[in-house]
Amino acid sequence: MKITVIGTGYVGLVSGACLADVGNDVLCLDVDAEKIRILESGGIPIHEPGLLEIVRNNVAAGRLKFTTDIAKAVAHGTIQFIAVGTPPDEDGSADMQYVLSAARNIGLHMNDYKVVVDKSTVPVGTGDKVRQAIAETLAGRGVELPFAVVSNPEFLKEGAAVEDFMRPDRIIVGTEDEQAIQFMRTIYAPFQRNRERLIVMDIRSAELTKYAANAMLATRISFMNELANLAEALGADIEMVRHGIGSDPRIGFHFLYPGCGYGGSCFPKDVQALRRTARGAAGIDLKVLDAVEAANDAQKHVLARKVLARFGTGPDRADLGGRRFALWGLAFKPNTDDMREAPSRYLIADLLAAGATVVAHDPVAMDEARRIYGDEKRLSYAATPREALADADALIIATEWKVFRSPDFDGMRQSLKQPVIFDGRNLYDPREMRERGFEYLPIGRPQA
Prior knowledge:
N-(1-d-carboxylethyl)-l-norvaline Dehydrogenase, domain 2; 448 residues; alpha/beta; 14 strands; Rossmann fold; 3 domains; six-stranded parallel beta sheet; 45% helix
């Protein structure tokens, strides 16, 4: 099947590459010529495990191509996936200009039947706006052509996106157009050979499903972080609490890990957008999500508060001048170089504002950090985790990379000025760390 994917960002590139990998003829469009140059030269503009190999294999096989030519892209596929960005607007709502621009371009260049699929995360009601944009553009051309609009939200986890696309737990298709439904069933048939995973519903329900899923997961994280802070104040161990409640099958263990806050391109943006949609379109305040966002904003400063309480000087213990801290982890989560809304960024800002210097290490995100921070003099980068520890007053862990899970503790203790670890991801056992001679300050656990 001939498929066009509009946008070669995270969602578009993964979707296009995986669709090509099962035999489709896929053309990916992007207006960013530099992205297309990188892709055509054998690279990819993002870090995602397994993606580079799939892109290269399917480019070599001729099933995956890239272009900046809008007319060519629209002419190519009967199916037109819109997978462009929907960044937060000034008021926190999703910015729809790129989605609607893609829709108008389809209307401007289409000459036969198209199924227009909203793959981007979009507010409820976007399907209507996309349909209107295409219809108005066709009317402006003085032509009448059939088309269908489908909502097909993505549920890809950064760091596991290829696996998620290839083996989905559910495929949401929002449309009432029977022909479009059959096209979508054909497209996704290779990804659900073991059992039926495709769920058909109306467009608005599909659009809301995406936001509802991310909001639910964000709520679990913020709730656990609130409980972790309470456990710490009461002398309880949040890990024991997590095991206790996670054993209830009605609750389960997923997204019950406390830490230093959630980040990335999805949860912060989608929680904010859903709150704005509810208030603007329905006049409803989502009080639970208001609290989720407030709790997460506060949690991103929890590590800095712990550092100031331990090392701060002055009347209000807000001065870290002369202190040097090693930071393990810059990405918002493992297996990605994405630093959007990463807790590390809030931590770095707090430490630098207090006068400290920071030496950071991340397996893949240091180039992204250099792009973000430029020539910031008090932030430097270490080639290895051990190198970051040299002459540091303490280690701070902000991302749970596997390489940090079982380090050389004896070597760490020798490298640090003081054997102090602030662990924002609860990687280690407090009792074991105490026995190894560390002062260990995790989240919601007894301190050693």
